[in-house]
């Protein structure tokens, strides 16, 4: 039987098996894109460990709390790109504080990081904030004493050495702006009798010497 002109011009239909494979490829591509987006969202919104901070000023520390006003400690990984936002928020916090605390920014130099690498861009940014004392925490000795594990971890202590706040002062990784951490610190600067508060910390692990490479 000869094909008519109409049927001759009609394109051949894809075989059912080919259509099924094409559909599966499209679904796999969509799943991969969705997984990538989810992983990026999870990274941006996933806090680091912060729940085991010292409840009181450690007795063996070489640091001392200010006896006349609250003391705020900020632990930083010098290569953590997310912590730029923490330094920005520290500047905002101090500008808004009615009672200004003594502030120490401790730059952890984990094993594997060459001496001097901690004094890079993040160090310069923190040094520009009036009244902030900068120090190198070689091998994270003080960070371990205070049980800080994540870059951007803030600890606020009353003059008697009791912990009033433990956590971060950003709402996500590398995101500056209004957040619960800053508000909680400001409240406890005004009234140190408030119960201790906590907030998530967003940043690199303090003892990761390859922070910048692993967390672009």
Description of the molecule:
Mean pLDDT is 81; it is low at 28-45. Helix content is 36%, strand content 15%. The chain has two domains: 17-46; 71-214, Glutaredoxin. It has a six-stranded mixed sheet. The chain is of the alpha/beta class and 216 residues long.
Q: Would you spell out the secondary-structure blueprint of this structure?
A:
Layout (H helix, E strand, L loop, with lengths): L4 H5 L6 H30 L25 E6 L6 H14 L5 E8 L11 H7 L4 E7 L2 H6 L6 E5 L5 E5 L12 H11 L6 E2 L12 H4 L2
Parallel strand pairs: 1-2, 2-3, 5-6
Antiparallel strand pairs: 1-4, 4-5
How many H/I helices?
Answer: 7
Tell me, briefly, the overall form: globular
Give unreliable regions as ranges.
Answer: 28-45
CATH architecture of the largest domain: 3-Layer(aba) Sandwich
What is the radius of gyration computed over CA atoms, rounded to a whole number of angstroms?
26 Å
Count of distinct structural domains: 2
CATH topology of the largest domain: Glutaredoxin
Share in β-strands: 15-25%
Secondary-structure-derived class? alpha/beta
Can you identify the CATH superfamily of the largest domain?
A: Glutaredoxin
Average per-residue pLDDT, rounded, comes to 81
Sheet with most strands: 6 strands, mixed
What's the helix-strand series? Answer: HHEHEHEHEEHEH
Strand order of the largest sheet: 3-2-1-4-5-6
Specify the helix fraction band: 25-40%
CATH C-level class of the largest domain is Alpha Beta
Total count of strands: 6
Alpha carbon gap, first and last residue:
67 Å
């Amino acid at each position: 039987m000869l094909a008519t002109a109409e049927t001759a011009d009609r394109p051949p239909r894809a075989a059912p098996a080919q259509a099924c494979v094409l559909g599966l490829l499209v679904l796999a591509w969509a799943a991969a894109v969705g997984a990538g987006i989810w992983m990026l969202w999870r990274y941006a919104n996933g806090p680091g460990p912060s729940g085991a901070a010292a409840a009181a000023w450690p007795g063996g520390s070489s640091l001392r709390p200010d006896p006349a006003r609250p003391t705020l400690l900020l632990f930083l990984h010098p290569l953590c790109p997310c912590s730029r936002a923490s330094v920005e928020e520290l500047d905002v916090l101090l500008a808004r504080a009615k009672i200004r605390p003594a502030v120490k920014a401790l730059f952890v130099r984990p094993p594997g990081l060459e001496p001097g690498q901690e004094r890079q861009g993040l160090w310069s940014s923190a040094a520009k904030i009036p009244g902030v004392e900068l120090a190198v925490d070689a091998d994270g000795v003080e960070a371990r004493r205070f049980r800080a594990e994540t870059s951007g971890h803030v600890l606020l202590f009353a003059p008697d050495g009791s912990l009033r706040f433990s956590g971060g002062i950003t709402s996500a990784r590398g995101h500056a702006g209004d957040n619960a951490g800053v508000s909680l610190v400001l409240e406890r600067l005004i009234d140190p009798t408030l119960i201790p508060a906590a907030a998530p910390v967003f940043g690199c692990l303090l003892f990761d010497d390859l922070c910048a490479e692993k967390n672009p």
